[in-house]
Amino acid sequence: MARKFNVEASFSLTTQIEPDYIRFDESDSEDFENDSSFSMQDVECDGGRVTFVIEADDEYDAESKANEVITDGGEVEDGNGWTWLIEGLSFEIEEQEIEMDLARAREILSNLVVQAAGEEDGHEVERAVEFVFDYIAGQAARIERCVTQIDSHDRQRTEMILRISELEKRLLPEDNQDEIDRSIAEHEQALAENPDLP
Q: What share of the chain in percent tops pLDDT 70?
């Protein structure tokens, strides 16, 4: 199964330049002659760096495919229209860590067991793996629904306690307010320590 790799390519650029013709402002001179003759010079610029992501079977395959994107000795053109050669190319390759989830685990294990079983038993093994993962997914969904229901019940119970508190404040004399508040606080603490209390 193909994996993804981060690739960082470092390189330098080289070219040769030779001025073809140079111009001067000769309007204020007489008998101006330009006999300039320049030799060709090698120019090297370092600092080349590109990054990209490719899919490959392993790190060796990743480097091979990276060489198809950028090649040592290959030609590139810059924004000025100059042609340069790529030199000193080197790669840093790192496999991406893809977060594991149920779907990915299912794919990996399905491929593994089918390969191990061979063609004769591969179909039955694949069905068995599918069954197990379907069952796991179903149980996970049930657990998630139960957690949602529990959260909903907790919210309803909290709302009920608040409503009872408000009713007690309205029905009982103000002199008993401190006792009411203390009773509510003790009830809430008991609920926190033992959620099964009514």
A: 77
Last residue of a domain, one of 48, 66, 95: 95
- 22 and 108 in a single domain? The answer is no
Q: Compute the distance between CA of residue 58 and CA of residue 115 in angstroms, rounded to an integer.
A: 18
pLDDT of res. 12:
96
- Of 29, 62, 95, the last residue of a domain is 95
List phi, psi (to 5°) of 23. -115, 145
For residue range 85-98, list pLDDT tens digits in order: 999 999 999 998 87
Q: For residue 149, what are the domain limits?
A: 100-198
Residues 75 and 117 in one domain: no
DSSP bridge pairs for 9: 50, 91
More confident residue, 174 or 99: 99
Considering only CA atoms, which of 58, 61, 47, 60 is closest in space to residue 9? 47
pLDDT, average across residues 167-189: 66
Q: How many domains, the chain?
A: 2
Q: How far is CA 60 from CA 23, 52, 66, 98, 101, in A?
A: 53, 16, 10, 19, 27
Residue 79 and residue 104 in one domain: no
